[in-house]
Amino acid sequence: MAYGHSHGNANLPTILAGGRALGYKHGQHVDFNLPKIGQYNVADANSHYRVCSRPVDDNARLSNLLLTMVQRADVESSQFQDSLGSVSKVLV
What we know:
Layout: H1 34-37, H2 45-53, H3 62-72
């Protein structure tokens, strides 16, 4: 996390490794902030802090990825905590 002292839950790097047999796409970096902000500007600390301290895209939730993972593991579930749906960007 860029600003660990804030305990913000945005801009959290997460690695999903393995699972080719489960239909995951590999070799990609998915960034849910970039489409909303256009580019990162680390020279402007205040704008960069806003990106790191709270979600830029309210629909980009870690719980969506967790829901996708349990569904691919054949666990019947339509929701995981506050998820809004599965993450199609990581699926083949």
